[in-house]
Amino acid sequence: MEDKLRGATREELMSHVLTQRRLIRHLHRRVVELEREVSLVSRSSPPRRSGATALSVGLRKIGRVLQAHASGALHLPQEFVAEFLYIQKELAAAASGEAPTPSSGRPAASPPEEGSSVPRRFSPPGSLIQRTQQRLSVIQRDETP
Length: 145
Prior knowledge:
The protein has helices at residues 2-6, 10-44, 48-71, 78-95, 126-143. By secondary structure, the protein is mainly alpha-helical.
């Protein structure tokens, strides 16, 4: 990609910059939407005890799937592995009571600073957790004879 950008004309570079700006705006809007969903889900979530149990069960399931993948018993696409590792890290932080903070020290919905290339972190939204649970159930169905 760098080679293409180095050899690009001014018009191509401007087009690329505009595309990146549109993408950033779209992603920023999506992050704000997801944060709203998370706040709605957290207000309506069950008491902390049952949530902690669900977190530990989810962590164990994800751990078993990742171990099976690592041993070669189960083949997962790389995007699944990356997503599971991310979720496992976030759920472990939530289970231990650590509050995940954005790496930049700002709320995740704040727009990125000029020249900042540091990605921002935020807690996984409920939709991401639901999608992961669906993927786990699909994997478990595929494993059963």
